[in-house]
Amino acid sequence: MKKKVQVIDLSVPLQNRSMEGVVFSPQIVRYTSDETARTWCNQVGLSPKDLPGETHLNSDAVSLRTHSGTHLDAPLHFGPTCEGRPPKSIDQVPLEWCYGDGVVLDFTHKKAGEIIGVEEVKAALKKINHRLEKGEIVLIRTDATKHYSEFDFTAMHPSLGRESLLWILDQGIRVVGIDAHSFDVDGKYMAERFKKDRDPNVLWPCHYVGREREYLHAEKLANLDQIPRPTDFQVFLFPVKVERATGGWCRAVAIVPED
User: Mind listing the domains of the chain with CATH numbers?
Assistant: First the structure.
């Protein structure tokens, strides 16, 4: 008998005029059944009147980057090497890495542009009485994607810092995710910090960790607040298989067993 579970959609929709930034916003063109009828019939020498109902199929054409919408970043995204070796592209990422027991850490109290430190991660785990285990997928909840359609969406979130991410990876974690535009804070915050101290470690700290440690992160997750408990559920982040790509779109879901 099939077990009763709750399936929670953790993905944002791909949509025209999204607030992901100019380079990430998808372009979606809709084709009506009358338009496709004319096109197809012209190709094969028929008339739309020959078709049942005198119409054909509705369709869409989408132009987007592999980092548009909810997606998984591959090691290839992070730089030219990973742990001294050629980094994996998204089609080379083992699917076994892309699902596992989930852990939600709530950082909704953190402000946009703030960095989540190691002690804050430990405190969040202590709050839910959980110790990270190898193979779990850690989800950083900020609630930023509640504002996915708002103008300043890309700059609305905090993020882990270099040391806090490394600490999580040290616990045997290979995949992390965030419900925000990026796993690092917006570029304007990084630039402000760099101009102040000239410390290059403040620039893309989480992404650049991927040059030293083989890990994956998911960006633009959604609905982490709908997962009814911080543990005891599974996460599935299977990416679309794009050859030699730096990332892949995924329909991220959480599977929660019913009590």
Answer: 27-63 (no CATH), 71-257 (3.50.30.50)
